[in-house]
Specification:
Blueprint: E1 2-7, H1 10-18, E2 22-25, H2 29-39, E3 45-51, H3 52-57, H4 59-68, E4 73-77, H5 88-97
Parallel strand pairs: 1-2, 1-3, 3-4
Keywords: Hydrolase, Ion transport, Transport
Family: Belongs to the V-ATPase F subunit family.
GO molecular function: hydrolase activity; proton-transporting ATPase activity, rotational mechanism
């Protein structure tokens, strides 16, 4: 199985391509959504990598894929400017565990 990055950021796509990961550069949100739908059920892909910004644009589709429990695994990475949502980890723990920290 291989990994695939789908991003609207050319630097992220190029950088991960240089490290050996296939990449699809998307010009706009519609192309991003189309590529995600195309590759989310591909049996040859083990991991789909999205930047945080791209994840937020197609959140509904990504969450539905994650909840299905099937491959490929969808992973979100920070963009070139770092983590945009500073409370992401705290909110994630609250939602998954159900306790307030």
């Amino acid at each position: 199985m291989k990994s695939l990055v789908i991003s609207r950021n050319r630097d992220v796509t190029t950088g991960l391509r240089l490290s050996g990961i296939d990449g699809k550069f998307c010009k706009d949100v519609e192309e991003l959504r189309t590529n995600f739908k195309k590759y989310k059920d591909d049996d040859s892909i083990g991991i789909i990598i999205l930047t945080e910004r791209d994840f937020n644009e197609i959140k509904e589709e990504v969450i539905a894929k994650k909840l299905s429990g099937t491959l490929p695994l969808v992973v979100t990475i920070p963009g070139p400017k770092g983590i945009e949502d500073k409370d992401f980890i705290l909110r994630y723990i609250k939602e998954s565990v159900g306790i307030k920290l």
